[in-house]
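quick q for whoever's on today - can somebody do inverse folding on this one?? i tried earlier but teh output was garbage lol. tokens:
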């Protein structure tokens, strides 16, 4: 059986969305003739922990670990955070110490290139080069962010010439918080150069959205494939019609300042004021890390009595909570790359077969998937009239017990089906390498 070395920063017991993609690929690859070997840090500084994900790691899976040094303790000391893990997405400008945060972000962007895991690049290249002499593999995969993983792949590829796939779960220089790094002209050029190096020297590039594919094609990769994120059928609960007497709208996952839907809070506030039935039955549940700015907006619009805030929960618990909702809320970052953002939770929302309300570009990739699957509606960031009409429509259907969508063609987003697409790329690279050997 051919082997693939997967270099990833996130691996159980790390929680959150970053771990799901390659955890699930590694789960299904053996069924299609490839043995995964995982390389990941021994002591990562991840913010979320989820022990329940360990059930998806087969006992026979080889997991290589080496120590990593990360400068987050220095970052926390600079910003006055002693225990809290640094999370770029949750750095609201409205928090205290914003000046210190800006300084820390500037240092991070200009000195730690491509990211704070950069100190793991050289030791990893050295360790893996030696390891592969006695334990050969047939392909290498790096997945980012953090994009230091790709720099490990680049160094390893130069040393070994083993076929290499660079998987981009998010963009590098076109990610929404890139501007918040306050880069100098030189640092920006270095980021751009390293990104081009990875894209052009990898034997294949994999991206997660149509918009990302179009953007990375401009960097002239040898090969580029679109493989979406997805849902694991093994995680899904039976589709049971929710019997709750409340009209519950739930959001599962992180809400950063860039995702703060001010228009939604306004429309919900108006509906509570204008519609007595809505006021009596409406409930909003936010599950996961929520930025301070979002909580402040909810309070300002008088929604706090109708809101339940739940901190980070395990993946299993998140699946259960989304199955209890009438409407699942999907928020797209309000950023220049918004059309290409497809959050991983979209696909688990689809598997839940609940009505989805997305707020983001109506001509973006999320909107396209929702139209194809008939699973919900996408409302533009500033379309107040359509947002209000949609919420009233959903509420009326809730009252009539007809809110359940007839979801179509979602099997192609299952992790098992997506693994078939990945294996096709691996097989073709392996065949090409064998021909040249």
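ok took a stab at it. sequence:
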């Amino acid at each position: 059986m051919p082997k693939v070395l997967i270099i990833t920063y996130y691996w159980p017991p790390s929680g959150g969305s970053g771990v799901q993609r390659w955890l699930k690929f590694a789960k299904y690859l053996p069924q299609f003739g490839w043995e995964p070997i995982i390389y990941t840090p021994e002591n990562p500084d991840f913010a979320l922990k989820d022990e329940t994900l360990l059930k998806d790691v087969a006992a026979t899976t080889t997991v290589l670990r080496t120590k990593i040094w990360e400068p987050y303790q220095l970052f926390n000391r600079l910003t006055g955070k002693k225990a809290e893990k640094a999370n770029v997405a949750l750095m609201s400008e409205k928090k205290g110490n914003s000046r210190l945060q800006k300084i820390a972000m500037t240092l991070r962007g200009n000195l730690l290139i491509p990211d704070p895991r950069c100190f793991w690049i050289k030791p990893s290249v050295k360790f893996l080069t030696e390891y592969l002499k006695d334990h050969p593999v047939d392909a290498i995969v790096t997945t980012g962010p953090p994009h230091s993983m790709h720099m490990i792949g680049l160094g390893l590829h130069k040393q070994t010439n083993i076929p290499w796939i660079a998987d981009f779960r998010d963009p590098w220089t076109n990610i929404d918080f890139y501007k918040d790094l306050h880069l100098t002209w030189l640092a920006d050029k270095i980021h751009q150069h390293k990104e081009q190096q990875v894209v052009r020297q990898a034997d294949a590039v994999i991206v997660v959205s149509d918009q990302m594919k179009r953007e990375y094609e401009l960097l002239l990769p040898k090969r580029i494939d679109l493989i979406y994120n997805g849902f694991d059928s093994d995680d899904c609960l039976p589709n049971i019609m929710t019997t709750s007497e409340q009209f519950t709208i739930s959001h599962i996952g992180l809400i950063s300042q860039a995702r703060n839907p001010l228009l939604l809070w306004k429309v919900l506030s108006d509906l509570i004021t204008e519609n007595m039935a809505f006021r009596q039955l409406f409930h909003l549940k936010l599950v996961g890390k929520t930025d301070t700015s979002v909580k402040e907006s909810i309070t300002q619009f008088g929604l706090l009595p109708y809101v339940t805030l739940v901190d980070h929960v395990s993946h299993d618990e998140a699946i259960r909570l989304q199955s209890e909702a009438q409407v699942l809320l999907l928020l797209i970052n309000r950023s220049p790359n918004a059309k290409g953002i497809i959050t991983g939770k979209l696909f688990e929302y689809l598997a839940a077969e609940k009505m989805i309300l997305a707020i983001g570009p109506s001509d973006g990739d999320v909107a396209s998937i929702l139209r194809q699957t008939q699973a919900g509606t996408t409302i533009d960031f500033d379309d107040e009239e359509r947002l209000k009409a949609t919420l009233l429509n959903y509420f009326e259907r809730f009252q009539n017990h007809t809110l359940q969508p007839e979801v179509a063609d979602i099997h192609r987003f299952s992790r098992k089906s997506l693994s078939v697409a990945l294996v096709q790329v691996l097989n073709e690279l392996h065949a090409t390498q064998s021909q040249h050997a």
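fwiw The chain has two domains: 3-230+414-436, 233-411. also The chain is about 40% helix and 15% strand. so keep that in mind when u check it
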